[in-house]
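lol forgot to send this yesterday, sorry. struct tokens for the thing we talked abt
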């Protein structure tokens, strides 16, 4: 093991090694941004994001959990005097990895918002010595001279590296996912403090719930149950509220409280709702905090299925809980 990697905690190594997909890597990167994982591939072990990144952490974490694996980012900065007495300025920028079709769609959207995009093909598809020649986009100036740039192409060898890539902490499967992803950079060309890029990324993350469900069977299962509960909440006799979760996590910040037959709390369903699935419950009222605390604890998937079987007309049930199943709510 490389000397620097010896300084990565065993818990962090396990987290990164368990990741297999681009989405998995994005989730662990989000945890690193939020300081629940101490090290990240390609960075100094034991160090978190730079102080200038703190205002961006919420957005970057959401973007990573939506499948855009970010490798670098920086906020825009108005010209100002830096630590060395020189005048510095920055462009807001982000770069990372995303499946080709999703990267192309996000790139088109960024261009429509007046942002500059550099989109490279997956490293695994580029022959050796034939890397794209598109230059870096300058993002940081010192006294008018370019100090850093974003958008350079990263070769498969770079990405497999134990020092500057993902090879030191991640499995071969995960590294292959990165090398087969498009390389996307988005830059706001104004050298100033600007929120335009981050607002775009927030909007994009908000819309990724159904796509993430397609990429991740676990999320597909969560989303299906939320869809069924949302349909049940819309029935005439149902009482339903959405409340803040008493113990929120980075993914589950809200809970659906639902009684399909009225207001008797004894038959209530309480289901933690993934952040990406909240738009499914846009028509459900917010609950008073007192009501939320008075109802039962969050229920598991199997408990919810049993309650759905009680309250809804079940058209086809599985032979085991892991089999596909469908229900239809009759109004």
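and heres what i got for the seq, position by position
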């Amino acid at each position: 093991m490389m000397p620097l990697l010896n300084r990565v905690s065993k818990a962090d190594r396990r987290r990164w090694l368990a990741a297999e997909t681009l989405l998995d890597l994005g989730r662990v990167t989000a945890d690193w941004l939020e300081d629940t994982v101490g090290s990240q591939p390609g960075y100094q072990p034991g160090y978190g994001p730079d102080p200038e990144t703190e205002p961006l952490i919420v957005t970057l974490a959401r973007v990573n959990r939506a499948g855009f694996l970010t490798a670098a980012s920086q906020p825009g900065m108005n010209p100002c005097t830096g630590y060395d007495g020189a005048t510095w300025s920055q462009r807001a920028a982000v770069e990372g990895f995303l499946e080709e079709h999703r990267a192309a769609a996000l790139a088109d959207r960024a261009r429509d918002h007046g942002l500059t995009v550099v989109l490279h093909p997956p490293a695994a598809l580029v022959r050796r010595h034939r890397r794209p020649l598109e230059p870096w986009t300058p993002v940081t100036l010192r006294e008018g001279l370019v100090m850093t740039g974003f958008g350079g192409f990263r070769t498969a060898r770079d990405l497999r590296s134990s020092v500057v890539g993902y090879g030191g902490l991640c499995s071969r499967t995960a590294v292959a996912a990165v090398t087969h992803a498009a390389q996307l950079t988005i830059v706001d060309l104004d050298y100033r403090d600007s929120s335009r890029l981050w607002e775009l990324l927030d909007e994009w993350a908000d819309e990724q719930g159904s796509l993430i469900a397609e990429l991740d069977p676990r999320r597909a299962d969560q989303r299906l149950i939320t869809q069924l509960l949302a349909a049940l909440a819309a029935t005439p006799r149902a009482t339903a509220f959405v409340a803040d979760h008493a113990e929120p996590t980075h993914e589950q910040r809200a809970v659906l409280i639902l009684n399909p037959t009225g207001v008797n709390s004894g038959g209530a369903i309480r289901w933690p709702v993934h952040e990406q699935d909240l738009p499914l419950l846009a028509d459900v009222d917010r609950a008073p905090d007192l009501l939320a605390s008075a109802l039962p604890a969050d229920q598991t998937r199997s408990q919810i299925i049993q309650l759905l079987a009680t309250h809804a007309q079940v058209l086809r049930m599985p032979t085991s809980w892991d089999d596909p199943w469908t229900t239809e709510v009759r109004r």
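Residues 23 and 142 are 36 Å apart (CA to CA). anyway ping me if u want another try
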